[in-house]
What we know:
The structure is a single chain. Helix content is 19%, strand content 35%. It is an alpha+beta fold. The protein folds into 3 domains: 4-61 and 198-227, Pseudouridine synthase; 65-195, Pseudouridine synthase, CATH 3.30.2350; 233-292, Roll (Archaeosine Trna-guanine Transglycosylase, Chain: A, domain 4), CATH 2.30.130. The radius of gyration is 22 Å and the shape is elongated.
Amino acid sequence: MNNGFLIVNKERGFTSFDVCAKLRGILKTRKIGHTGTLDPDATGVLLVCVGNATKAVDILPSEDKEYRAVVHFGITTDTEDISGQVLTTCDDTVSEDAVREAILSFTGDIKQIPPMYSAIKVDGKKLYELAREGKVIERKARDITIHDIRIESIDYPFATILVKCSKGTYIRTLCKDIGEKLNVGACMESLVRTSAGGFNISEALTLSEIEEKVKAGLIDEIIIPTERLFEEYEISYMKDDRIKLAENGNRLNADDFKSIPNTLRTRVHIGNRFIGIYEYDNEKGDYKPYKMFLE
């Protein structure tokens, strides 16, 4: 089985679940998952884990994502994007300076109320399921970070923005909130995720391109080794007579390594083989398995 990640350029009309389902057929494996949902109308980078890489989903070092979004001012919808049912319209015009000021005001640590049309669960039920039943419930605001917003163009009633943000940010809601600040309303016209997990859209392949590579026997050219996601951690090599300890997932002492790790987390290697991430335990003074990637 291949282990690692595929950088998928998700096309419009597919859900993230659809992408995983199709890849299960293409790769002939069930062990596949994605690292961050994209709405069906959104396109761009979807990081998909294959094989033992599925164990890494919850510990990815980089959770920041980057998007290119088009804000459509003067219209609000129930889904907060252009595909939803129109709730309000506004013919007022807003100056370019006012639009620019409103957009940039959302940079930094902010609170955001998740949209009803989202996969967040409340009492065991997803919000979008409740929304389809015509129900609207109170949602708690969540802390998110907008690291950077760059304005690519403003051609009212549209503005194209480039957003670098933390995990859990809803760009649809960001567009809506910008419109509310200007008192004209807004929704998201389109969205492309340009980067996720440290990977850029220039590296991404469509499902059909991935299928072509697999049929040609070139899967190794496009699957990214799991270890690449943890390059920020140093590599620690096991002593030859301590290999079994690591292979069995035991706790390790500093003298089990060829050289003492300099960081709290370290990539553990047996020769050239990456077997997992170990983490220093301050209380016990040794290293415990943080996430193992042994077969």
